Protein: Bifunctional ligase/repressor BirA
Organism: Planococcus massiliensis
Amino acid sequence: LGQTIHYVESCPSTQIIAHQLAQEGTPDGTIVLTEEQTAGRGRLARKWDSAAKKGIWMSVVLRPDVVPQKAPQFTLVAAVAVVRAIEEVTGLKPEIKWPNDILIKGKKSTGILTELQSDADGIQALIIGIGLNVNQSLQDFPEELQDIATSLSIESGKLVNRQELVRALLSHLEIYTDLYIETGFGMLKILWESYSSTIGKTVRARMAKETLTGIAEGITEDGVLQLRTADGKLHGIYSADIEMTN
Ligand code: BTN
């Protein structure tokens, strides 16, 4: 992982470049890294604010030999790698909010966006986008984000060396994707759940058509959130915005 690194000073979105490279046949483990995105994108067609030289904005092209249902597991693996890298470099204690937000003291420090590239022959590549807020001060965030977003430097009280963090991130991504490929998801599920702020809590899951409140009991092998509502039913949540109810 990281044998091929494409670095650009500025771009609309590293996801777009990664998709292009993947289409042109770039090898497994290719990284696209930039200082600034002018049209960074987030989950659910949202924008991703990507201030110049303050964060890590990167996309990873993976070409795993997996069946499509297994693809979401790589996103969970990436979340574990990000948490471990942040812990190692800053000593902070991040938590994962299902599916893939990395929170520090309840505020979002990192978002992960996984996209598939497929054609008639099946999935050709997974493009995992990681947006990590590193050295922003609160004023660097747009006003509407100031209550919900944070950066590593806000939380640790010092500037963080982004190069060191990228290095740690790449090394943990390699360790955990290899672990996943060699041993399966069991160990990683345990790690993911141990870092999760969602599991064991009563949460509200807002979905496109309904909102459900219940206890988040765990995730399945496919990363589906298992939510137990008051009537005792277990619901599989595939895509939602999660809020803690307490
Ligand atoms: C989310 O939480 O909604 C996911 C945000 C993902 C942002 C990263 S930044 C690098 C990559 N390029 C993008 O345009 N998006 C992802």
DSSP finds five helices and twelve strands in the chain. Residues 13-15, 37, 40-43, 46, 48, 50, 57-59, 101, 111-113, 129-131 surround biotin (CB under 6 Å). The two ends are 40 Å apart (CA to CA). The chain has two domains: 5-195, 202-244.
